[in-house]
Amino acid sequence: MQHRSVHDVMTQEVITARSGTPFKEIAALFHRNDITAIPVIDDQGHPIGMVSEADLIRKAAVLPDPEGRTPGRWLDAKDRARAEAETAGGLMTSPAVTARATWSVPEAARQMDKHKVKRLPVVDDVGRLVGIVSRRDLLQVFLRHDAAIREEITHDVLGQTLWLAPGDVQVVVRDGVVTLTGRLPRRSMIPIAEQLCRAVDGVVAVHQTLDFTEDDTDVHLEQPHAYRSGR
pTM for this one? Predict the structure, then answer.
């Protein structure tokens, strides 16, 4: 079984900013390149933070109100300082949450979910920026055709991994949802087969009504008697 990695789905040509990049230049970069966030890098190419549209919009939030109301009253001191910043170094969210190109798509998705971010700068072994991956990029795996998913499950999971004979298990895939029917040699193989199918790129869910020949999960081991030495 082969899985798409972050390298397969990331954007390699990354628009970046430096700590001293002015506010208006960042806004212009967003507009010209149709993007919503950029990594901020140091002189060695290491990402040190991210600036997003949300960071820029705070500037508008603290502008004077035509009715004279106090602007940005809800902002705490840290966010107010960022709202009043003039360069990327003051605007950015830091430190940057990053990914590695060798990570699997699920690994990157877990990193995004854990840190509640929409994109990850991708770094090499020494921490230099080599790409960027977004939520949209990670969702590409779910565009995979049902026929390709079924072929991988039938050949790689059932045939090459579980060593099942052709026809033992029937596989139907519709809109990424996998349905397994048939019979496995042992009951303990059912959750294994289900888990392996879930790990296939593009699978949305797995449903199964698998039967089994031998129930190897109901085994009671006889406890050995305690040994007593004679005198």
Answer: 0.77
